[in-house]
Recover the amino acids of this structure.
């Protein structure tokens, strides 16, 4: 465990990435990841492991997941060190794709496998396949994305897994009701804006954010798309030529968009009822 | 409007962007309108990427850990000799070669130029390399290596040539597309790949 990560002097350079952007240029790591790697390459392996075990991302010694992956992918570490980093890396994946255990009402028994659990298992499985293929020597370009933005790339895998769950859960396309639903538009807009800010703000209560995440994840895909575009402040409709609108993007009329928004809002509001005033 | 690209690569690229605000999303939506639904779904997923972390920091149960480690550890790196590139054409002779050309939607004579090292490697667009790798069952890396190392004349020794051996100099990908007889549809696809990669 005293092996030096750098292994030789002078400190080795950081291995470049090989994946390419659609314009053909090579990926490069974000500056902060490069800086962290430069520091970490100068540490002993025991220090690297110790720091990698830190789970609080605000800790100044926290090792970004992008860097943990870097060391797992590169050959040369002794087996014990590689094992420890592999364990830590899986923990990072599991934490980024959380599952809230569901219990059967009135009992301590766990409910049958939830969609969230299926998603977590699928993501972990896919990530494992990519790691194994990469280690065999078939350099996996997709892991370069993870070395740039780990959690964003996991979100890609999560979406693929979620689409399968959607196919099962929303097998029958839901018909859009023509009935108007929801409260006054301005109140809904203002409440949704608060939710969007809560998702962006780390200072917001942990339980509130967790519930909001779960509530958004429970929305049918049609409603979730409308909510995302509202969070992005894309207008529902516009008379101006060339303006991207929600109605155009989701391929339906303005009234249907508003109904989807209002139904989604009701779901989110109900899920958050026990929390503060939405 | 979009040009021919691999949708997975585009979605990967969107995920890796530093920010996913409205302007980034709109840029991708305008460039790849055919991927609108996927981009919106991904945008939503990325919004939730910063999952709230429980303050306790307790480890998450990982019942498959030891199995996963054994599998990973057992995947010993297979060191491939770097001195000689794998020849992706080795298993494509005769009818198989014609089928490969058909799978790529290019004339056989066009593919022959790649087999014989007649195309400047740096001019070959990445989307074509990826399509070629998929169709021939080799890694993109192997395909790139072969294109980079194949020399005019040498590679051709192993095969019966089906082009008149009048000129052994290398051409750029675009020159080859323009000089080869093919349907207009085939030509446009190849030129789009060229344009997509920003190659002249």
């Amino acid at each position: 465990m005293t092996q030096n990560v750098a292994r030789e002097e002078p400190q080795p350079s950081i291995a470049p990435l090989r994946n390419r952007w659609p314009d053909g240029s090579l990926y490069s790591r974000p500056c902060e990841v490069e800086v962290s790697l430069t520091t970490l390459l100068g540490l002993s392996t025991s220090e690297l492991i110790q720091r990698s075990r830190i789970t609080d991302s605000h800790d100044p010694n926290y090792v970004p997941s992008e860097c943990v992956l870097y060391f797992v992918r590169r050959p040369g570490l002794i087996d014990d060190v590689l094992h420890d980093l592999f364990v830590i890396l899986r923990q990072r994946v599991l934490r980024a794709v959380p599952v809230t255990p569901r219990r059967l009402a009135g009992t301590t028994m766990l409910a049958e496998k939830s969609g969230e659990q299926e998603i977590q298992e699928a993501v972990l499985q896919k990530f494992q396949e990519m790691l194994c293929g990469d280690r065999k020597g078939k350099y996996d370009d997709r892991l370069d994305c993870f070395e740039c933005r780990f959690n964003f790339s996991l979100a890609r895998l999560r979406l693929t897994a979620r689409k399968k769950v959607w196919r099962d859960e929303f097998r029958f396309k839901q018909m859009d009701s023509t009935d108007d639903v929801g409260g006054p538009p301005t109140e809904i807009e203002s409440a949704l804006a608060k939710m969007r800010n809560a998702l962006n703000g780390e200072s917001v209560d942990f339980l509130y954010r967790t519930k909001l995440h779960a509530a958004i994840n429970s929305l049918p895909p049609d409603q979730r798309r409308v909510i995302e575009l509202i969070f992005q402040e894309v207008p529902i409709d516009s008379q101006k030529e060339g303006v991207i609108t929600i109605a155009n993007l989701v391929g339906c009329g303005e009234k249907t968009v508003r109904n989807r928004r209002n139904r989604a809002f009701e779901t989110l509001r109900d899920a958050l009822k026990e929390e503060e005033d939405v | 409007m979009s040009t021919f690209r691999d949708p997975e690569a585009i979605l990967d690229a969107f995920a890796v962007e530093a920010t996913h605000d409205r302007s980034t999303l709109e840029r991708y939506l305008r460039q790849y309108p055919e991927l609108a639904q996927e981009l919106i779904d991904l945008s939503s997923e990325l919004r939730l990427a910063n999952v709230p972390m429980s303050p306790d920091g307790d480890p998450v149960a990982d019942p498959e850990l030891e199995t996963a480690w054994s599998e990973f550890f057992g995947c010993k790196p297979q060191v491939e000799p770097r001195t000689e590139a794998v020849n992706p054409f080795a298993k494509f002779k005769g009818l198989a070669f014609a089928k490969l050309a058909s799978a790529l939607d290019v004339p056989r004579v066009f593919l022959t130029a790649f087999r014989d090292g007649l195309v400047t490697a740096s001019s070959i667009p990445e989307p074509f390399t990826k399509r070629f790798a998929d169709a021939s069952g080799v890694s993109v890396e192997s395909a790139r290596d072969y294109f980079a190392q194949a020399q005019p004349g040498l590679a051709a020794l192993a095969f019966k040539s089906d082009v008149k051996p009048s000129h052994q100099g290398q051409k750029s990908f675009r020159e080859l597309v323009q000089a080869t007889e093919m349907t207009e549809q085939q030509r446009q696809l190849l030129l789009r790949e060229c344009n997509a990669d920003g190659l002249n």
Chain A has two domains: 31-104+114-169, 185-271.
